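Continuing the batch. This is chain 6 of the set; chains 1 through 5 are on the previous pages. Same settings as before, nothing changed between runs. Recording input and output for traceability.
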Amino acid sequence: MDFDLTHEQRLLADSVNRFVSDRYGDFEKRKAYRSGQKGYADANWSAMSEMGLLGLPLPEEQGGFGGGPVETLLVMEAFGRGLVVEPYFATVVLGLGLLRRTSGQGELLAQVVAGETTLAFAHQERQARHDLHDIAATARRAGDGWVLDGAKGVVLHGDAADRILVSARIAGARRDRAGIGLFLLDPAAAGVTRRGYATQDGLRAAEIVLEGAPATLLAEDALPLIELVADEAIAALCAEAVGAMETLRDLTVDYLKTRQQFGRPIGEFQALQHRAADMLVATEQARSMAMYAAMMVQQTDAAARSTALSAAKALVSRLADTLGKDAVQLHGGIAMTEEYKAGHYFKRLAMIGALFGDVDHHLRRVVAAGGLPE
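Output for chain 6:
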Protein backbone atom coordinates (compact mmCIF):
# COMPACT_ATOMS: atom_id res chain seq x y z
CA MET A 1 0.00 0.00 0.00
CA ASP A 2 1.26 3.49 -0.86
CA PHE A 3 1.59 5.67 2.24
CA ASP A 4 3.21 8.61 0.47
CA LEU A 5 1.49 11.95 1.02
CA THR A 6 0.02 13.90 -1.85
CA HIS A 7 1.30 17.38 -2.63
CA GLU A 8 -1.73 18.93 -0.91
CA GLN A 9 -1.24 16.77 2.18
CA ARG A 10 2.41 17.79 2.44
CA LEU A 11 1.42 21.44 2.20
CA LEU A 12 -1.15 20.92 4.95
CA ALA A 13 1.40 19.21 7.19
CA ASP A 14 3.95 21.99 6.63
CA SER A 15 1.36 24.66 7.39
CA VAL A 16 0.17 23.04 10.61
CA ASN A 17 3.71 22.33 11.77
CA ARG A 18 4.62 25.99 11.25
CA PHE A 19 1.55 27.05 13.22
CA VAL A 20 2.49 24.80 16.13
CA SER A 21 6.11 25.94 16.03
CA ASP A 22 5.15 29.62 15.99
CA ARG A 23 2.39 29.47 18.58
CA TYR A 24 3.67 26.70 20.86
CA GLY A 25 7.44 26.70 20.33
CA ASP A 26 7.84 28.52 23.63
CA PHE A 27 6.21 26.40 26.35
CA GLU A 28 5.46 29.51 28.40
CA LYS A 29 2.99 30.55 25.70
CA ARG A 30 0.95 27.41 26.34
CA LYS A 31 0.77 28.27 30.01
CA ALA A 32 -0.49 31.74 29.10
CA TYR A 33 -3.14 30.31 26.78
CA ARG A 34 -4.38 27.98 29.52
CA SER A 35 -4.71 30.83 32.01
CA GLY A 36 -7.44 32.52 29.98
CA GLN A 37 -11.10 32.23 30.91
CA LYS A 38 -11.80 29.68 28.17
CA GLY A 39 -8.57 27.77 28.70
CA TYR A 40 -7.30 28.63 25.22
CA ALA A 41 -6.46 31.63 23.01
CA ASP A 42 -9.10 33.16 20.72
CA ALA A 43 -6.29 34.41 18.45
CA ASN A 44 -5.13 30.84 17.87
CA TRP A 45 -8.67 29.73 17.12
CA SER A 46 -9.07 32.53 14.56
CA ALA A 47 -5.77 31.54 12.98
CA MET A 48 -6.97 27.95 12.64
CA SER A 49 -10.08 29.25 10.89
CA GLU A 50 -8.02 31.35 8.48
CA MET A 51 -5.90 28.28 7.68
CA GLY A 52 -9.04 26.30 6.84
CA LEU A 53 -8.48 23.78 9.64
CA LEU A 54 -11.92 24.25 11.20
CA GLY A 55 -13.55 23.09 7.98
CA LEU A 56 -11.11 20.25 7.41
CA PRO A 57 -13.67 17.39 7.12
CA LEU A 58 -16.30 19.37 5.20
CA PRO A 59 -16.59 19.15 1.41
CA GLU A 60 -15.49 22.20 -0.54
CA GLU A 61 -19.06 23.13 -1.53
CA GLN A 62 -19.79 23.63 2.18
CA GLY A 63 -16.77 25.86 2.67
CA GLY A 64 -14.51 23.08 3.89
CA PHE A 65 -11.14 21.58 3.04
CA GLY A 66 -12.51 18.27 1.78
CA GLY A 67 -10.10 16.34 3.95
CA GLY A 68 -10.34 12.79 5.23
CA PRO A 69 -8.72 10.65 7.93
CA VAL A 70 -5.19 11.19 6.62
CA GLU A 71 -5.57 14.97 6.80
CA THR A 72 -6.94 14.65 10.33
CA LEU A 73 -3.97 12.44 11.23
CA LEU A 74 -1.53 15.10 10.03
CA VAL A 75 -3.23 17.85 12.01
CA MET A 76 -3.64 15.86 15.21
CA GLU A 77 -0.07 14.57 15.16
CA ALA A 78 1.21 18.14 14.90
CA PHE A 79 -1.14 19.25 17.68
CA GLY A 80 0.17 16.39 19.83
CA ARG A 81 3.73 17.62 19.38
CA GLY A 82 2.72 21.09 20.60
CA LEU A 83 0.17 20.04 23.25
CA VAL A 84 -2.32 22.40 21.62
CA VAL A 85 -5.05 23.51 24.05
CA GLU A 86 -7.65 24.87 21.61
CA PRO A 87 -10.91 22.84 21.34
CA TYR A 88 -10.11 21.37 17.93
CA PHE A 89 -10.83 17.79 18.91
CA ALA A 90 -14.11 18.71 20.64
CA THR A 91 -15.35 21.05 17.89
CA VAL A 92 -14.07 19.61 14.61
CA VAL A 93 -13.50 15.90 15.22
CA LEU A 94 -16.49 15.30 17.51
CA GLY A 95 -18.93 18.17 17.02
CA LEU A 96 -18.49 18.73 13.30
CA GLY A 97 -18.17 14.99 12.74
CA LEU A 98 -21.72 14.60 14.04
CA LEU A 99 -23.22 17.83 12.76
CA ARG A 100 -22.09 17.50 9.15
CA ARG A 101 -23.92 14.18 8.85
CA THR A 102 -27.28 15.67 9.80
CA SER A 103 -29.49 17.91 7.68
CA GLY A 104 -30.64 21.49 8.01
CA GLN A 105 -27.61 22.86 9.86
CA GLY A 106 -25.84 24.70 7.05
CA GLU A 107 -25.79 28.05 8.85
CA LEU A 108 -24.28 26.53 11.98
CA LEU A 109 -21.66 24.69 9.92
CA ALA A 110 -20.63 28.00 8.34
CA GLN A 111 -20.31 29.60 11.78
CA VAL A 112 -18.03 26.78 12.96
CA VAL A 113 -15.82 27.03 9.87
CA ALA A 114 -15.57 30.81 10.37
CA GLY A 115 -14.41 30.33 13.95
CA GLU A 116 -17.50 32.03 15.35
CA THR A 117 -19.00 28.99 17.10
CA THR A 118 -17.43 26.16 19.07
CA LEU A 119 -19.05 22.79 19.69
CA ALA A 120 -18.96 20.07 22.34
CA PHE A 121 -20.38 16.57 22.48
CA ALA A 122 -22.16 15.56 25.70
CA HIS A 123 -22.46 11.79 25.65
CA GLN A 124 -20.57 10.19 28.53
CA GLU A 125 -22.59 9.25 31.62
CA ARG A 126 -21.35 8.13 35.00
CA GLN A 127 -22.83 4.61 34.93
CA ALA A 128 -21.85 3.84 31.33
CA ARG A 129 -18.07 3.51 31.67
CA HIS A 130 -17.08 3.24 27.99
CA ASP A 131 -20.25 1.66 26.55
CA LEU A 132 -21.62 4.10 23.98
CA HIS A 133 -25.11 2.57 24.07
CA ASP A 134 -25.57 3.01 27.84
CA ILE A 135 -27.68 6.19 27.95
CA ALA A 136 -29.93 7.17 30.84
CA ALA A 137 -30.61 10.79 29.83
CA THR A 138 -34.10 11.10 28.37
CA ALA A 139 -35.80 13.18 25.73
CA ARG A 140 -39.53 13.87 25.62
CA ARG A 141 -41.73 15.88 23.35
CA ALA A 142 -42.94 19.28 24.51
CA GLY A 143 -45.24 20.91 21.99
CA ASP A 144 -43.43 21.11 18.67
CA GLY A 145 -40.01 20.51 20.23
CA TRP A 146 -38.11 18.36 22.69
CA VAL A 147 -36.85 18.75 26.23
CA LEU A 148 -33.99 16.82 27.82
CA ASP A 149 -33.42 15.50 31.32
CA GLY A 150 -30.29 13.83 32.70
CA ALA A 151 -26.61 14.36 33.44
CA LYS A 152 -23.50 14.19 31.26
CA GLY A 153 -19.91 14.06 32.43
CA VAL A 154 -16.44 14.91 31.13
CA VAL A 155 -17.83 16.99 28.27
CA LEU A 156 -14.60 18.13 26.61
CA HIS A 157 -14.50 21.94 26.43
CA GLY A 158 -18.16 21.89 27.38
CA ASP A 159 -17.84 24.81 29.78
CA ALA A 160 -17.14 27.31 26.99
CA ALA A 161 -18.83 25.69 23.97
CA ASP A 162 -21.38 27.81 22.13
CA ARG A 163 -23.51 24.82 21.14
CA ILE A 164 -23.61 21.31 22.57
CA LEU A 165 -24.63 18.10 20.83
CA VAL A 166 -26.33 15.78 23.31
CA SER A 167 -27.34 12.13 23.16
CA ALA A 168 -30.57 11.22 24.95
CA ARG A 169 -32.93 8.30 25.00
CA ILE A 170 -36.18 8.71 23.07
CA ALA A 171 -37.34 5.14 23.72
CA GLY A 172 -36.24 1.84 25.23
CA ALA A 173 -34.35 0.75 28.32
CA ARG A 174 -31.07 2.27 29.48
CA ARG A 175 -28.77 -0.18 27.68
CA ASP A 176 -30.84 -0.73 24.53
CA ARG A 177 -29.04 0.05 21.31
CA ALA A 178 -32.21 1.38 19.71
CA GLY A 179 -33.98 4.54 20.76
CA ILE A 180 -31.01 6.92 21.20
CA GLY A 181 -31.48 10.36 19.67
CA LEU A 182 -28.99 13.14 18.93
CA PHE A 183 -29.95 16.69 19.87
CA LEU A 184 -28.57 20.22 19.52
CA LEU A 185 -28.62 22.31 22.67
CA ASP A 186 -28.02 25.97 23.45
CA PRO A 187 -26.14 25.89 26.80
CA ALA A 188 -27.55 29.31 27.65
CA ALA A 189 -31.11 27.96 27.61
CA ALA A 190 -33.18 27.42 30.73
CA GLY A 191 -32.73 24.04 32.37
CA VAL A 192 -29.01 23.73 31.57
CA THR A 193 -26.39 23.79 34.33
CA ARG A 194 -22.70 23.63 33.50
CA ARG A 195 -19.81 23.16 35.93
CA GLY A 196 -16.47 23.61 34.23
CA TYR A 197 -13.11 22.39 35.50
CA ALA A 198 -9.54 21.74 34.39
CA THR A 199 -8.66 18.19 33.45
CA GLN A 200 -5.39 16.57 34.55
CA ASP A 201 -3.77 17.40 31.21
CA GLY A 202 -4.49 21.11 31.52
CA LEU A 203 -7.44 21.23 29.13
CA ARG A 204 -11.07 21.94 30.04
CA ALA A 205 -14.20 19.85 30.55
CA ALA A 206 -17.62 20.21 32.16
CA GLU A 207 -20.31 18.35 34.02
CA ILE A 208 -23.72 19.18 32.54
CA VAL A 209 -27.11 18.72 34.19
CA LEU A 210 -30.27 18.94 32.08
CA GLU A 211 -33.64 19.62 33.69
CA GLY A 212 -36.29 20.16 31.04
CA ALA A 213 -33.75 21.77 28.70
CA PRO A 214 -35.16 22.63 25.24
CA ALA A 215 -33.31 21.05 22.33
CA THR A 216 -33.53 20.44 18.58
CA LEU A 217 -33.67 16.86 17.31
CA LEU A 218 -30.95 16.09 14.75
CA ALA A 219 -31.28 12.30 14.42
CA GLU A 220 -33.66 9.76 15.94
CA ASP A 221 -31.66 6.54 15.53
CA ALA A 222 -28.28 8.08 16.27
CA LEU A 223 -26.18 5.29 17.78
CA PRO A 224 -24.60 4.13 14.47
CA LEU A 225 -23.61 7.74 13.78
CA ILE A 226 -22.22 8.17 17.30
CA GLU A 227 -20.21 4.96 16.96
CA LEU A 228 -18.79 6.10 13.61
CA VAL A 229 -17.70 9.46 15.02
CA ALA A 230 -16.28 7.74 18.12
CA ASP A 231 -14.12 5.59 15.83
CA GLU A 232 -12.98 8.71 13.98
CA ALA A 233 -12.18 10.27 17.34
CA ILE A 234 -10.10 7.23 18.32
CA ALA A 235 -8.11 7.50 15.08
CA ALA A 236 -7.50 11.19 15.80
CA LEU A 237 -6.38 10.45 19.37
CA CYS A 238 -3.96 7.79 18.14
CA ALA A 239 -2.38 10.37 15.83
CA GLU A 240 -2.19 12.95 18.61
CA ALA A 241 -0.53 10.38 20.88
CA VAL A 242 2.17 9.76 18.25
CA GLY A 243 3.01 13.47 18.12
CA ALA A 244 3.20 13.71 21.91
CA MET A 245 5.27 10.51 22.17
CA GLU A 246 7.71 11.76 19.54
CA THR A 247 8.32 15.03 21.38
CA LEU A 248 8.55 13.41 24.79
CA ARG A 249 11.08 10.91 23.43
CA ASP A 250 13.18 13.74 21.97
CA LEU A 251 13.03 15.66 25.25
CA THR A 252 14.24 12.60 27.10
CA VAL A 253 17.12 11.89 24.70
CA ASP A 254 18.24 15.53 24.93
CA TYR A 255 18.15 15.30 28.72
CA LEU A 256 20.25 12.11 28.66
CA LYS A 257 22.84 13.94 26.58
CA THR A 258 23.15 16.88 28.98
CA ARG A 259 22.54 15.48 32.49
CA GLN A 260 25.88 14.77 34.15
CA GLN A 261 26.52 11.93 36.60
CA PHE A 262 29.94 10.68 37.75
CA GLY A 263 31.53 13.28 35.48
CA ARG A 264 29.90 12.12 32.25
CA PRO A 265 26.51 12.47 30.48
CA ILE A 266 24.14 9.78 31.67
CA GLY A 267 23.32 9.05 28.04
CA GLU A 268 26.70 7.33 27.77
CA PHE A 269 25.53 4.54 30.05
CA GLN A 270 24.50 1.56 27.93
CA ALA A 271 21.46 0.66 30.01
CA LEU A 272 19.96 4.11 29.42
CA GLN A 273 20.79 3.94 25.72
CA HIS A 274 18.73 0.74 25.56
CA ARG A 275 15.83 2.51 27.27
CA ALA A 276 16.04 5.34 24.74
CA ALA A 277 16.04 2.81 21.89
CA ASP A 278 12.93 1.18 23.35
CA MET A 279 11.23 4.61 23.32
CA LEU A 280 12.07 5.00 19.63
CA VAL A 281 10.63 1.57 18.83
CA ALA A 282 7.46 2.35 20.81
CA THR A 283 6.98 5.63 18.91
CA GLU A 284 7.33 3.95 15.52
CA GLN A 285 4.98 1.13 16.51
CA ALA A 286 2.41 3.70 17.59
CA ARG A 287 2.88 5.57 14.32
CA SER A 288 2.16 2.40 12.36
CA MET A 289 -1.01 1.78 14.37
CA ALA A 290 -2.14 5.39 13.90
CA MET A 291 -1.77 4.95 10.14
CA TYR A 292 -3.69 1.67 10.38
CA ALA A 293 -6.45 3.45 12.32
CA ALA A 294 -6.67 6.20 9.70
CA MET A 295 -7.00 3.56 7.00
CA MET A 296 -9.55 1.39 8.79
CA VAL A 297 -11.80 4.24 9.91
CA GLN A 298 -12.95 4.39 6.28
CA GLN A 299 -14.08 0.72 6.44
CA THR A 300 -17.75 0.44 5.49
CA ASP A 301 -18.28 -2.66 7.64
CA ALA A 302 -19.08 -1.12 11.03
CA ALA A 303 -18.12 -4.22 13.03
CA ALA A 304 -14.78 -4.62 11.28
CA ARG A 305 -14.09 -0.89 11.62
CA SER A 306 -14.79 -0.82 15.34
CA THR A 307 -12.67 -3.91 16.01
CA ALA A 308 -9.73 -2.45 14.09
CA LEU A 309 -10.00 0.88 15.90
CA SER A 310 -10.18 -0.89 19.26
CA ALA A 311 -6.99 -2.78 18.46
CA ALA A 312 -5.25 0.45 17.46
CA LYS A 313 -6.41 2.29 20.57
CA ALA A 314 -5.37 -0.52 22.90
CA LEU A 315 -1.85 -0.80 21.48
CA VAL A 316 -1.21 2.94 21.14
CA SER A 317 -2.46 3.58 24.69
CA ARG A 318 -0.24 0.83 26.09
CA LEU A 319 2.81 2.07 24.18
CA ALA A 320 2.15 5.66 25.24
CA ASP A 321 1.82 4.64 28.87
CA THR A 322 5.11 2.73 28.82
CA LEU A 323 6.98 5.50 27.01
CA GLY A 324 5.56 8.15 29.31
CA LYS A 325 6.59 6.28 32.45
CA ASP A 326 10.07 5.65 31.04
CA ALA A 327 10.44 9.34 30.21
CA VAL A 328 9.47 10.40 33.72
CA GLN A 329 11.84 7.88 35.29
CA LEU A 330 14.77 8.84 33.06
CA HIS A 331 14.23 12.53 33.79
CA GLY A 332 14.02 11.98 37.53
CA GLY A 333 12.33 14.51 39.79
CA ILE A 334 12.36 17.33 37.23
CA ALA A 335 9.67 15.52 35.20
CA MET A 336 7.21 15.87 38.08
CA THR A 337 7.44 19.67 38.26
CA GLU A 338 4.82 21.98 36.79
CA GLU A 339 7.51 24.16 35.23
CA TYR A 340 9.05 21.46 33.03
CA LYS A 341 7.09 20.25 30.02
CA ALA A 342 7.88 16.51 30.11
CA GLY A 343 5.28 15.91 32.81
CA HIS A 344 2.65 17.73 30.77
CA TYR A 345 3.20 15.37 27.84
CA PHE A 346 2.91 12.40 30.19
CA LYS A 347 -0.39 13.73 31.56
CA ARG A 348 -1.80 14.28 28.08
CA LEU A 349 -0.83 10.76 27.04
CA ALA A 350 -2.56 9.41 30.15
CA MET A 351 -5.70 11.36 29.26
CA ILE A 352 -5.63 10.06 25.68
CA GLY A 353 -5.37 6.54 27.06
CA ALA A 354 -8.60 7.02 29.02
CA LEU A 355 -10.68 8.83 26.40
CA PHE A 356 -13.19 6.68 24.47
CA GLY A 357 -12.14 3.52 26.25
CA ASP A 358 -9.05 2.35 28.12
CA VAL A 359 -6.78 -0.56 27.18
CA ASP A 360 -8.84 -3.22 28.97
CA HIS A 361 -12.10 -2.05 27.38
CA HIS A 362 -10.72 -2.20 23.86
CA LEU A 363 -8.95 -5.51 24.36
CA ARG A 364 -12.24 -7.03 25.49
CA ARG A 365 -13.88 -5.74 22.31
CA VAL A 366 -11.17 -7.25 20.10
CA VAL A 367 -11.41 -10.62 21.88
CA ALA A 368 -15.22 -10.60 21.67
CA ALA A 369 -14.98 -10.00 17.91
CA GLY A 370 -12.59 -12.91 17.46
CA GLY A 371 -9.56 -10.84 16.57
CA LEU A 372 -8.71 -8.33 13.87
CA PRO A 373 -10.61 -8.29 10.57
CA GLU A 374 -8.80 -9.83 7.62
